[in-house]
What we know:
By secondary structure, the protein is an alpha/beta fold. It has helices spanning 2-12, 14-17, 25-32, 52-60, 74-83, 100-107, 126-139, 156-159, and strands at 42-46, 66-71, 90-94, 112-117, 140-150, 165-171, 178-184. Helix content is 35%, strand content 24%. It has a seven-stranded mixed sheet, sandwiched between helices. α3 crosses α4.
Amino acid sequence: MKFLSFLAQYISNPRSVGAILPSSSYLADKMVKSINFEQARYILEYGPGTGVFTEKLLQNRNPNTAIILIESNEEFYKILVQKYKEVDNLFIHNGSAEKVDWYLEKCGIPYVDYVISGLPFASLPKAVSHRILFKTSKVLRKNGKFVTFQYSNVMKAYIEQFFSKVDVSIEIRNVPPAMVLCCSLEEEKMEVTYAI
C-alpha cells in the first residue's frame, strides 16, 4: 500500500516527490546517524513522505524531544496524520519548508537541533531551494546539523553556500543509490544573500 501511494504521488508530482520508491531503511539509518538523540530537544523533518525517516526518529528519540514534520504533498500529509495520530510531541504541518520559521513560531519552538530533509533540491525551482536552505541555516542552533540526501553531486556546491562544513557519504543500498550530505555551521553563521 505504501509503495502504491508513493508511486501514485510520484506520477502526479514528479518534481516534488523526486523518487519512484520510498527511501530504504539503510538510507534512513545513515540519515539519522549524526543525531545525538539524548541531547536533541527539537528535530525537524522536511518532506517526510510516508514516514521512513520519521520512524527512525521516533524509535530513537528521547520522549521529551519534539519532532516537527513539514510535508507539502497533501496525500502524504494525510497518511502521516493518520499513522501518527496517537504520538505525543509530534507536530505535522501541510505546507512548504519555505515557511519553516512560521511553522516553528506557531508551535512555540525557538530553534532546532537537527533538520532531516527528503526534499529533491535538484528538481525544485532554484528560488525555492534558496529560501529553504537560507531559512534552515537561520533556525538551526549553533553546531546544529542539516542532513539531506541527493541522487547526484550536482547540488553539493550550491548547498555549501549556506553551510560552512558539508560531509558526504554514499548509501548504495537504496534505489537509486544516494549521497548523504551532513551540513553544519561550525563557524559564526555566514551571511547569505537572500534572493527571492
